[in-house]
Automatic annotation (TrEMBL):
Family: Belongs to the PPR family. P subfamily.
Protein name, as recorded: PROP1-like PPR domain-containing protein
Record-annotated PROP1-like PPR domain positions: 240-335
Residues in coiled coil: none
Keyword Transmembrane: no
Length: 715
């Protein structure tokens, strides 16, 4: 066989041509040569083409080239490819290492594919000591990142995964450990070991050469939010900023929903503010959570601004869930006509189909407006709108009928519900079984119609149907009997409930206290209140709430201090009840003490609580502390109502710091959530009380000239 090998160089003058002659042998797989000719390199002009070497020289050159090639033991290269190796290439040359690393990588990938991963996982899972794990991995060391990832994703126990990672981490460069760490983090979160997962992420931050990425933080924070550990999840947000990892929309939405579900509306609003400050455009889910948080915090105007202006401006179409919290907040404030108007806007203008909760709210609003017929028409037309009434809807209609004095309609609807529960075919076309709220509503209706005997028999009827009375049931019965002049019967029932260990709620206690006081049995009322100092069967938080609602300052303060010292107060509503009680009785120092206790427990106060605390600081002439509280809460992302801002302006006026007052008013004038007219009226009143009539007159004239829409800077 005759083959030619042309070695090409960058210099045309160094071009060598060899003609090798060998005896041809039958082609086999072992000695088959597949050689592609090297492209000819053009020679520069003016240089003669070299002459072919004589046969003797060819033999000598061939022998020299063969001697220059390394032995197969040093370089494992197939014989067919040996002709491509430059004999002058040293082992330290970078090209040599590149060929070697590529070959090793190919060999390592081949070895990884041939490993029985299932058997290796079983061996690691059965290992009892670190030496057993090392022994199982010994034949495969050094472990590649591909094999480590396969093992970590299949080992169910995250703690064994930690041991495995600690063992083989030296085999890999630090940047290659990111994926194994993330797999281990995900495994710990799936196993519910959140403490281990948090430690893994913190170890990633402390380890050199590897740092958590967006997947790491998202995995851990999502697991923490699902488990209800909001405060622990929020501690990782500053770490994300330090690692230059930006939280995404999904993460923020999960945190906002968790805060809202946990009853911490101020924290939900703070998170929503951080979301928008980060330049992330909220989606429908985030907007709905923010609207609900605004409504829960009493910031109804801000909620309506989001619903009617911000959402359409961002191209986010509201749905029924967007309108529901606003309608409920309007109903809670007694603005039932505004709720009905918004419901009309929702259907006619926004073209949003109401859901069940919206129908329930509007039916109740109709009842409060004495529009029972409109409520009745809407109730029986719900199915045409594709919404099936629930037991809550039926209970709402019973209450509407009862408030309107339509006792016959209420009894008829109640009979339909009981018949539907027995034969499975309700009057509205579905089976709706009465619950405890249904019976409580009917007992109250019988009480309004002065049928106390029927009300008492209904309690026995509900027990016969498997519905157990609750505290509201007994409270309603007690009220009916007291109105009917059966005080002895009511007192006996209350004592029997206490002896039986029935759960007593604040409503039931307050009902009996009021009953004793109205009947002139003051000693009985005081005895009941004294019992709350050492409550049995009633939590101390509930006892404090009962005493605060009854206006018992000393008793509530005594029990609150004792419970606070033992760490038995966890609910922030107890702190708010005590602050309101002390504020009403002008005990401002006690207001500050309760507020400080609330902050020590890590609760984020709402807008009204902050306003109460700032008012107490103002009464105590501690203006600097009020200003520090205002600034600190703003930095934490608390969303204030207008009352808090106006409170701060008033405190600056009382301090006669008019420069700071003008700066704050100028800053607030650019806030779209502030009522500008009220803002400038408050500022004008402060200037008037400080005998700065020219300033006050200038502000009033600006308000009149601008028709209340805008006021120029008056500084």
């Amino acid at each position: 066989m005759q083959a030619q090998w042309t070695q090409c160089g960058s210099d045309a003058s160094a071009l060598l041509s060899y003609s090798l002659t060998a005896d041809a042998s039958p082609p086999t797989d072992k000695n088959l040569l597949s050689v592609s000719p090297c492209p000819a390199t053009p020679l520069p002009r003016g240089r003669p083409r070299p002459r072919p070497m004589p046969p003797a020289a060819v033999s000598a050159a061939t022998a020299a080239a063969a001697a220059a090639l390394p032995s197969p033991s040093h370089r494992r290269v197939p014989a067919a490819k040996s002709v491509w190796i430059n004999p002058n290439l040293s082992a330290s040359h970078p090209l040599h290492h590149r060929h070697k690393s590529a070959a090793e990588l190919q060999q390592r990938q081949h070895e990884d594919r041939t490993i029985d991963v299932a058997a290796l996982v079983a061996a690691i899972s059965a290992a009892r000591t670190a030496a057993d794990v090392a022994s199982a991995l010994a034949p495969h060391r050094p472990v590649s990142g591909r094999l480590l990832g396969a093992l970590l994703s299949r080992i169910p126990d995250p703690r064994r995964g930690v041991a495995l990672l600690d063992l083989v981490a030296p085999d890999l460069p630090p940047p290659a450990l990111l994926i194994p760490y993330n797999l281990l983090l995900r495994s710990a979160c799936r196993a519910g070991d959140l403490r281990l997962a948090s430690g893994i992420l913190l170890e990633m931050r402390d380890r050199g050469g590897v740092s958590p990425d967006a997947f790491s933080y998202s995995t851990l924070l999502a697991a923490l939010t699902r488990a209800g550990h909001l405060d622990h999840a929020l501690t990782f947000l500053p770490l994300m900023e330090d690692d230059a990892v930006a939280p995404d929309l999904i993460l923020f939405s999960n945190l906002i929903h968790l805060a809202l579900r946990g009853g911490d509306a101020p924290k939900a609003l703070a998170l929503f503010s951080r979301l928008r400050a980060a330049g992330i455009k909220p989606d429908l889910k985030a907007y709905n959570a923010a609207v609900a948080a605004y409504c829960k915090s009493g910031l109804l105007r801000d909620a309506k601004r989001l619903l009617l202006h911000d959402m359409p401006a961002d191209g986010v179409a509201p749905d029924a869930e967007s309108y529901s919290p606003v309608l409920a907040a309007l109903a809670r404030r007694g603005r039932h006509l505004a709720a009905v108007s918004l419901f009309t806007h929702m259907r006619a203008v926004a073209r949003v189909r109401p859901d069940l909760s919206v129908f329930n709210i509007v039916l109740s609003a109709y009842g409060q407006l004495d529009l029972a017929r409109e409520a009745d028409r809407l109730f029986w037309n719900m199915r045409r709108a594709g919404v099936t009434p629930s037991v809550v809807t039926y209970n709402t209609m019973l209450r509407v009928y009862g408030d309107a004095g339509l006792f016959g309609e209420a009894v008829h609807l109640f009979d339909l519900m009981r018949n539907s529960a027995s034969d499975g075919n309700g009057g509205a076309g579905s089976s709706v079984k009465p619950n405890v709220v249904t019976y409580n509503t009917m007992i109250a209706i019988y009480g309004k119609s002065l049928e106390d005997e029927k009300a008492g028999s209904l309690v026995q009827d509900m027990q016969a149907n498997g519905v157990q009375p609750n505290a509201i049931t007994y409270s309603t019965i007690l009220s009916i009997w007291m109105k009917a002049g059966k005080l002895d019967r009511a007192a006996k029932l209350f004592e029997k409930l206490r002896e039986a260990g029935t759960e007593i709620d604040p409503v039931l206690y307050q009902t009996m206290v009021v009953a004793y006081e109205r009947a002139g049995l003051v000693s009985q009322a005081k005895r009941l209140l004294r019992d709350l100092k050492d409550p049995e069967g009633v939590t101390k938080e509930m006892a404090i709430t009962i005493l605060a609602s009854a206006g018992r300052v000393e008793e509530a303060a005594f029990l609150f201090r004792r419970a606070a010292n033992t760490g038995e107060i966890k609910d922030s509503s107890v702190h708010r009840a005590m602050m309101d009680l002390f504020a009403k009785n002008r005990r401002h120092r006690n207001v500050i003490e309760v507020f400080d206790e609330m902050r020590k427990l890590g609760h984020l106060p709402d807008s009204e609580t902050i306003a109460t605390a700032m008012n107490a600081y103002g009464k105590l002439k501690e203006f600097d502390k009020a200003a520090a509280l205002y600034q600190a809460m703003r930095e934490e992302g608390c969303v204030f109502s207008d009352r808090v801002h106006f409170q701060m302006i008033s405190l600056l006026g009382a301090q006669e710091d008019f420069e700071a007052l003008e700066t704050l008013v100028s800053e607030l004038s650019h806030d779209p959530s502030i009522d500008k007219r009220e803002l400038y009226l408050v500022a004008a009143g402060i200037y008037e009380r400080a005998y700065k009539f020219d300033k006050a007159s200038h502000i009033i004239s600006q308000i009149r000239s601008s028709n209340g829409l805008d006021v120029q800077k008056f500084r």
